[in-house]
């Protein structure tokens, strides 16, 4: 399916069935277990949309994460953050990241007014590569998700 068709299908699901179903659609084409939307809330990242490919739901510790413990701290508009294997990523040498091995691929959610709102990401607690074309889709849908987050009745 072309990126244009994926964006069209994603947008339709988002409007008709909501954020979690749209995230499920995105996750269906990637090898990582989780797809999520998190928003900035002061010094926290709060989960507002979540999909688990195994159907086990969001672990409670992922509902709200202190910013200094979140990989979202590395994401800025135009500067996504990607790692296939955190144990081999030199950017993640802080003790907080040493005990986990994971894959994380996230990009910024910027509102139509230009405000940084949150992030959309695919991740897993195992080192798994995300193909570049799958990440391109994540970046393609980010503006749609950001606009929906600000005004879901749009």
Quick summary:
With 154 residues, the chain is of the alpha+beta class. It has helices at 3-17, 19-27, 95-98, 132-150; strands at 34-41, 44-52, 64-66, 81-83, 103-110, 116-124.
Euclidean distance between termini CA atoms: 26 Å
Reported by name, the CATH topology is Beta-Lactamase
> What number of domains?
1
Secondary-structure-based class equals alpha+beta
Helical residues, percent = 25-40%
Beta percentage is 25-35%
Mean pLDDT level: 90
Please tally the β strands and state the result.
6
Order of neighbouring strands in the sheet with most strands? 3-2-1-6-5-4
- Written as H for each helix and E for each strand, in order along the chain, the element string is HHEEEEHEEH
* Shape by Cα distribution: globular
CATH architecture designation: 2-Layer Sandwich
The poorly predicted ranges are none
Q: Which CATH class?
A: Alpha Beta
CATH superfamily: GAF domain
- Rounded radius of gyration (Å): 15 Å
Number of helices: 4
In this structure, how is the largest beta sheet organized? 6 strands, antiparallel
């Amino acid at each position: 399916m072309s990126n244009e068709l994926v964006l069209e299908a994603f947008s339709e699901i988002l409007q008709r069935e909501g954020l979690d179903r749209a995230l499920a659609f995105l996750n269906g084409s990637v090898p990582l277990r989780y797809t999520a939307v998190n928003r900035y809330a002061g010094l926290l990242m709060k989960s507002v949309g979540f999909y688990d490919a195994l159907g086990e739901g969001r672990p409670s510790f992922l509902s709200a994460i202190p910013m200094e413990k979140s990989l979202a701290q590395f994401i800025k508009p135009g500067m996504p953050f990607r790692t296939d294997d955190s144990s081999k990523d030199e950017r993640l040498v802080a003790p907080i990241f040493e005990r986990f091995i994971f894959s994380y691929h996230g990009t910024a959610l910027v509102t139509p007014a230009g405000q940084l709102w949150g992030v959309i990401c695919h991740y897993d607690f195992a080192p798994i590569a995300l193909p570049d074309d799958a990440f391109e889709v994540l970046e393609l849908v980010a503006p749609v998700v950001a606009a929906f987050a600000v005004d879901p009745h749009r």
